[in-house]
Design brief:
The chain contains 13 helices and 17 strands. With 533 residues, it is of the alpha+beta class. The strands form 3 sheets. Strands 3-2-1-6-5-4 form a 6-stranded antiparallel β-sheet. A hairpin with a 2-residue loop joins strand 5 and strand 6. Helix 4 packs antiparallel against helix 5. The C terminus is likely disordered.
């Protein structure tokens, strides 16, 4: 488009050379389109940079925002030196404005003795208005595409946050999405630690090989973006890392970083970390980089807040489960040491009284037999109740003896397969596994019309897996009733998962997975002491 405009202007105005230039923020202009009446390439090709200063149309138009005309005798400055090589006699420049701001300049050049006509400025203005409109339209399309791209990236990250993805997955996604949307060379997401260091939790590079690994730690300090954000709690940028200091600044220069922008991540009103975009190109990152980073840092903060709430909820549920198990043990112990022992004592006393009756009291002894049998029956029922509250076999012998006892008492034949039968697991794990098997066996006996059940218990990868399957009619629903729902809550409170597969006619499978150790904290601070970015 720029080449076409330059040619049309030159032909309509009968100019010898036309140049279309864009003003840059650093006090220079970049040539974006040229044309020559001779067809020869001009001495200032496209992408050439013209330093502003002195008396020439590029500088005058930039300073005044109005058309300017300069003859060769009055010209000075770097731009005049460039044009002087063309044997230029006179130049006319007219500003190009886009949405009310100066964007560039359209220049018509004559190498003839006669100056350019007096109406050249007015005629050029018609072209510059069209150029400004075209540039605005192009820019609007580019901005719209960029906005759509940015919104799509934010939606992808927001989806991860909404489904409570692990923080490390969110960190990696944010680093990549930010880098791609902002066309950065490197992005780093880091957490500030209490010991005055920062830990890298996510990193991305346009080359596919981030210059810093996740888990890397570095001391905060000196003049660099990480330290500026840490000290101020506000966005910061450094456009020239030549004078950067500190471990982070030194390493940034080492890997070729020239400019960077950082935005703070705050959680619950406190500074948590920073997202940094960096480039190895000398040109400064766009002025809106800080604002565009804000949307991503808000999502990171939301993900962290969600993770903290989830961790607090899990810990609270685990405490409730532990308290309930403690209460169960206390009730079972009270029944065993109190009510059961009292009933045993009464039964023995009754039998002793029967034995001591005189021979003529047979009728009375016969009347006492049902009472003695009733006491024995109540004692058996109480033992079953106590076993259901908290099985003594589980506490004394572990999971394998307790499950064997369940299998023996089951109304449906049970095939028990347990890996490492002598192994002991943390008490909450054993209790959860026991109750899952107990509930599955009870449900199968009551509702499944099953002929056999398989119970498999195995460990691997730090996880205990329990699978109970029957060959019954199926159709079980985890959402109906309270037994399995309560067990699901118990298992999830311990960081595990419980699932039920029960299509009609295919039997029912209850599967549980429980971690044998507490899950490691996401995005551990452990790692190399190598500076970050």
């Amino acid at each position: 488009m720029f080449a076409a405009v330059a040619e049309e202007v030159g032909r309509v105005l009968a100019a010898d050379v036309t140049i279309l230039s864009r003003y840059d923020p650093d006090g220079a202009a970049t040539v974006v389109g040229t044309w020559s009446s001779t067809g020869a390439t001009t001495s200032t090709p496209v992408d050439s940079r013209i330093e502003l200063g002195g008396r020439n149309v590029h500088t005058l138009v930039c300073e005044t925002r109005r058309p300017a005309r300069v003859d060769r005798e009055d010209a000075s400055g770097a731009a005049a030196d460039v044009f002087r090589g063309w044997a230029i006699r006179s130049c006319v420049g007219v500003p190009i404005s886009v949405e009310g701001r100066l964007w560039g300049v359209m220049v018509a050049v004559s190498t003839r003795e006669d100056p350019l006509p007096a109406d050249t400025e007015g005629r050029l203005a018609g072209f510059t208005e069209l150029v400004g409109t075209a540039i605005a339209n192009v820019q609007a399309r580019v901005d719209l595409r960029g906005f759509a791209k940015e919104q799509a990236a934010l939606r992808r990250v927001a989806t991860l946050v909404a489904r409570a993805a692990p923080p490390e997955e969110v960190f990696a996604a944010v680093a990549e999405e930010v880098g791609r949307v902002l066309s950065a060379g490197v992005t780093v997401l880091a957490r500030y630690d209490p010991d005055g260091t920062e830990s890298v939790l996510g990193a991305w590079s346009s080359t596919g090989a981030p210059p810093v690994a996740v888990g890397t730690r570095a001391r905060v300090g000196g003049r660099n973006v990480s330290t500026l954000v840490f000290r101020t709690g506000r966005p910061a940028r450094i456009d020239d890392y030549a004078d950067s200091t500190g471990a982070i600044g030194d390493y940034s220069r080492e890997v070729g970083i020239r400019t960077s922008v950082g935005a703070p991540i705050s959680v619950g009103g406190r500074l948590w970390g920073v997202v940094i975009v960096a480039s190895a190109v000398e040109q400064s990152l766009p002025a809106d980089t800080e604002a565009r980073l804000a949307g991503f840092t808000e999502l990171v903060a939301t993900a962290l807040a969600n993770a903290e709430v989830q961790a607090a909820l899990t810990a609270s549920r685990a405490r409730i489960v532990a308290a309930a198990d403690s209460a169960r043990r206390r009730i079972e112990r009270d029944l065993h040491d109190g009510a059961q022992q009292r009933l045993v004592s009464l039964a023995l006393q009754l039998r002793a009284a029967q034995a001591a009756m005189p021979p003529g009291a047979g009728a009375l002894a016969a009347q006492l037999d049902p009472v003695a049998d009733g006491l024995t029956g109540v004692l058996s029922e109480l033992r079953e109740i106590a076993r259901g509250i908290h099985p003594a076999a589980l506490a004394e012998g572990g999971l394998h003896p307790a499950l064997k006892s369940l299998a023996r008492r089951s109304a449906v034949p049970v095939r028990l397969h347990m890996q490492a039968a002598d192994a002991r697991f943390p008490e909450p794990i054993e209790i959860a596994a026991y109750y899952v098997v107990c509930e599955a066996l009870t449900n199968a006996a009551k509702h499944a019309q099953a002929t056999v059940m398989d119970v498999q218990v195995e460990t691997g990868g730090g996880v205990l897996r329990v699978r109970v399957r029957d060959d019954g009619c199926g159709g079980a629903d985890l959402t109906r009733g309270t037994g399995l729902v309560g067990l699901k809550d118990r298992v999830e409170a311990l960081g595990g998962r419980l699932s039920v597969q029960s299509s009609p006619g295919t039997g029912t499978t209850v599967a549980m997975e429980l971690p044998l150790t507490a899950p490691s904290e996401p995005a551990s601070a452990a790692g190399s002491q190598r500076p970050t970015a």
